[in-house]
Design goal:
The complex is a heterodimer of chains A (116) and B (115).
Chain A lengths: L4 E3 L2 E4 L5 E6 L6 E8 L3 E9 L14 E5 L5 E5 L8 E8 L10 E2 L3 E5 L1
Parallel strand pairs in A: 2-10
Antiparallel strand pairs in A: 1-3, 3-7, 4-5, 4-8, 6-7, 8-9, 8-10
Chain B lengths: L2 E5 L2 E5 L4 E8 L4 E8 L5 E7 L5 E3 L5 E5 L4 E6 L8 E9 L8 E2 L3 E6 L1
Classes of the chains: A mainly beta (116), B mainly beta (115).
Chain lengths: 116, 115
């Protein structure tokens, strides 16, 4: 498929465990974004990668959250010592040109994280 | 910083009736404005966008929206609702120009269509 893919689609974990969420962007897209969708908070920006530039981490809610993007393609969002308030749908998006002109962000289906 | 307010977390309309979903934004510089739709258990799909030029923009599935700078609004409309329009709709803003990339979303409006 040509779209953004995310895995797993659902993840249930116990409080205190670490989780990794994966995003495969559209081939050739240099920009990649993570958002969090939670009840009552709507959609919140988490982090942005563009090419080889340093990522914009301004949306990460705490130092338990981190993300990396290897080889300019696949990205992994890691949440350490998960808390119940981390339960949400984590959405990944990619776009063809980041930051300088309008660029449509294409969204993946999301990973639903439930922390028990 | 920019922000988006969607009036009404839940809107119900009868099939065939007008759909009106309201969005107001705040931005200190000219914005880019978007409407996304999310069907259950799916990602976001772009319905339409305003960047520059004509203030009335048409999107997919018969939806359109009008950018009104004086009212800082970007309301979404469709003349006749269809059952397949039932979904959640998100308005989003992005500041135009270099270095601006993240989308700021409203909290969403869930549209129900009554047969």
């Amino acid at each position: 498929g040509a779209g953004v893919s995310q895995s797993p689609s659902n993840k249930v974990t116990e409080k205190g465990k670490d989780v990794e969420l994966r995003c495969d962007p559209i081939s050739g897209h240099t920009a990649l974004y993570w958002y969090r969708q939670s009840l009552g908070q709507g959609l919140e920006f988490l982090i942005y990668f563009q090419g080889n530039s340093a990522p914009d981490k301004s949306g990460l809610p705490s130092d338990r959250f981190s993300a990396e993007r290897t080889g300019g393609s696949v990205s992994t969002l890691t949440i350490q010592r998960t808390q119940q308030e981390d339960s949400a749908v984590y959405l990944c998006a990619s776009s063809s040109v980041g930051g300088t002109t309008y660029n449509e962000q294409f969204f993946g289906p999301g990973t639903r994280l439930t922390v028990l | 910083a920019q922000s988006v307010t969607q009036l009404g977390s839940h809107v119900s309309v009868s099939e065939g009736a007008l759909v009106l979903l309201r969005c107001n934004y705040s931005s200190s510089v000219p914005p880019y404005l978007f409407w996304y739709v999310q069907y259950p258990n799916q990602g976001l799909q772009l319905l339409l966008k305003y960047t520059t030029g004509a203030t009335l923009v048409k999107g997919i599935n018969g939806f359109e929206a009008e950018f009104k700078k004086s009212e800082t609004s970007f309301h979404l409309t469709k003349p006749s609702a269809h059952m397949s329009d039932a979904a959640e709709y998100f308005c989003a803003v992005r500041i135009s120009g270099a270095g601006s990339y993240q989308l700021t979303f409203g909290k969403g409006t869930k549209l129900s269509v009554i047969p």
